[in-house]
Prior knowledge:
Layout: H1 2-15, E1 30-37, E2 51-57, E3 69-74, E4 77-83, E5 86-92, E6 95-104, E7 113-119, E8 124-133, E9 139-146, H2 148-157, E10 160-170
Amino acid sequence: MKLALMLLFCAVPAMAQTSPIPAACGNIDGDFKVKLNKSEHAIAAPEPGKARVYFFHDAGTDIKFAYPLVKVAIDGHSVGANHGNSYFSVSIDPGEHHVCSTLQSSFVESRYELAHFNAEAGKTYYFRTRIFDTGDSILMLDLMQVDSDQGEYRVKVTPMSVSTQNPDKFRPTKRFAK
């Protein structure tokens, strides 16, 4: 009996495989803290020779208790996080870029949403994330590029997210074999 239990405990880790983290996500597994700045904000023009990218989360609710943070990385580098209805923006170099978003949660299996786009100097881009409940107690994150009219509107009516990443507090994410 002891031998059977030992074999079982040794076999379980061998069967469990971790899903690879996409290259676009890089160091996205660190913990973020988010504060919301609710003052009025205007669309910032891109810096000379750069493009500007806005990321906003459309929570569909003002309830933030137990609502997960949405973390974003570009080209493998964390750039910020949103909590509830919020947005942030970053300045990037022109060229092809790969975007990754995931939830910061101890209760949800890690899922990565990915997108890529070609940034042009002087242009502004907008991406929206939303969380969907599939009805089976499974939360699905959605990432999509949106029209500038929608993006500009969301920035005007949404609080700005000011996020900081704590590199010393690594949050291992749940990864399961499919």
